[in-house]
Design brief:
Layout: H1 10-26, H2 34-39, E1 47-48, H3 58-70, E2 76-79, E3 100-111, E4 118-131, H4 154-167, E5 172-173, E6 181-183, E7 188-190, H5 200-215, H6 232-252, H7 261-274, H8 278-300, E8 307-308
Parallel strand pairs: 1-2, 5-8
Antiparallel strand pairs: 2-4, 3-4, 6-7
Helix pairs in contact: 1-3, 1-7, 3-8, 4-5, 4-8, 5-6, 5-8, 6-8
The structure holds zinc ion.
Residues 209, 213, 238, 241 line the site of zinc ion (ZN).
Amino acid sequence: MAKKFEVKTNEQKAESLVAAIQRLLDAGVAPWSAKYVKQFSAANGPRNFASGHYATGGNVFMAIADSVERGHPTCEYLTLKQARGYKFAKANRPLKGEGFSLYFYKPLEIKNRETGETETIRMLRMYHVFNVACFDGLPVREVPVVVEKPTPTLSEADTAMRGDIAAMGVPILDTPCDTPHYVPASDRIGMPPLASWESAGEYVKTLGHEAIHATGHDKRLKRGLDARFGSPAYAKEELVAEIGANLLCVYHGVSYDQKNSAAYCGHWAKVLRANPKILLAAATPASKAAEYITERVSVGGRAAPVAIAA
Ligand SMILES: [Zn+2]
């Protein structure tokens, strides 16, 4: 019987992801930037065109990387099997080796030889997919109209963010400091004065980064925040905070100009070269961390900020 899926190892999975992301970072584009996450969310995916399922974890960035790299307006995709009956579009016909791979864990039941009991293991499976722009004549989908939230002012963004952070029970020091930071030992955030920020987007991104770190505290999502500076675990937590902060920017309806983009992307390109699995490892905890904050907001409402002296 022909193999239905090609099973790849974690190493192979990381390699193909990294190749796509690395090309983007080298071109000065971080695919987790709020700009792209916003562009390819809600109406535009990343999602499977046939099933409507949204991509999660590292697959989000695989799909975004492909759309950004090839200039596709949406981030919806199909397997060749799902696209049976449709021809490749002349303008966007994929060349050999194009398209991109998505990875899913499928539960697989196996019999334990020693105990005789049936156990469920997680099997990694790969699907090769193509953007819908590669095909001609696909049915037209009703695209839901996305109502844009008005962009908050710096002061509105500050109030909203402080409410979210207070809902987590994390104080922000009353005395502004020079460098934004989160200290796990005291579970507190320090921020420079509000007047020093040029835009709501930069502010939300920066305070969001520290708030995402705070979700990793042992009282909350327990990511283990005691990694040594410069270690792989430290780099992973930084990437979790970066991706999570960008998700919070989308949630708050703000964006920002990525200053020093080449230096920023160059830094992450270097980190990815040293540790190809880091993006896969960081993507899911980052979205869980952002959800931890935004779900508390939607369920419990925003709490009043906790005043605390430095
Ligand atoms: Zn950080």
